[in-house]
User: Fold this.
Amino acid sequence: MNLHVLPAGPIQTNAYLLTAPERGEAVLIDAPGDVWADVEPILNKEHCRLTELWLTHGHWDHTQGGAAVVRATGAKVRAHAEDRVLIETPEIMKRFMGDKIDLEAVRVDHWVVQGEKFSALGLDVEVRHVPGHCPGNVMFYFAAAGAAFVGDALFKGSVGRADLPGGDFAQLEKSIRDQIYTLPEKTVVFPGHGPKTTVVHERATNPYVSG
Assistant:
């Protein structure tokens, strides 16, 4: 599996394109605005077809490019139902953002749940629900690859904001301790913004949620 980190959109939100050229398949985790322009050339170069789009949560900067990606590829979309209203009626976020952002609803094909397991790109994937930043924030964990894609729950040296609608710091803290910090310590954490980190590093040094 190849990993391509593609920061995109107005606030440089991380999209993660996972490709398996030997299978001719790819998965995109999150879809910030205009990310398709970065994704398409990689798919063509590696001779892959985008089969799925996974949304870690429903905030606009992670979903803004989703509809365009689905139109171009027919990718199946996975997300958590706690963020259904944000994903399917994104105009709600315009009440807080104004008309500065262009948002389009994304149709979700499958609503994931805590503990769900499925296969993608020839690997097993586990879903963990990590609310607190956003009610439907989830993590996609590849145990064999030692990789966890956590959305905006946890960053290198920081955590997701809990002061937005639906946020709750006590819940976020519990999610991080129960769902992320319980992963093997060498697990690489890929956040929605900024550089990657590891479970052991954040448990030891994160000033907001210690291990």
Summary: Helices lie at 36-46, 60-63, 66-73, 84-88, 91-97, 169-180, 199-205. The longest strand covers residues 13-20. The chain has a mean pLDDT of 94.
